[in-house]
Amino acid sequence: MAALGALLAVAAVPVAAAQTAEGFLTVSSTPPAKVIIDDKDSGRSTPVENLRLPVGDHKLTLVNGNVKRTLGFTITAGQTTRLKIAL
């Protein structure tokens, strides 16, 4: 029975790690723009390098004056997603 308990504890580790997995976003735009991710202001403007984000699908909105562009992107664990956008 003790071996079964140990097996369950080991099996739980990858699940917890997957829930906290992160990757990175690097984004540049012409002209520079305010960066909004998942409808939340990041407090940054492009260019942004190696912004840490949780793994999964996200929404990027760039705003420069009256010009606004929104697109989806995916973050993969341990990888950098690079986006170059012309507004």
Automatic annotation (TrEMBL):
<feature type="domain" description="PEGA">
    <location>
        <begin position="24"/>
        <end position="87"/>
    </location>
</feature>
<dbReference type="InterPro" id="IPR013229">
    <property type="entry name" value="PEGA"/>
</dbReference>
<feature type="signal peptide">
    <location>
        <begin position="1"/>
        <end position="17"/>
    </location>
</feature>
<keyword id="KW-0732">Signal</keyword>
<dbReference type="Pfam" id="PF08308">
    <property type="entry name" value="PEGA"/>
</dbReference>
<protein>
    <submittedName>
        <fullName>PEGA domain-containing protein</fullName>
    </submittedName>
</protein>
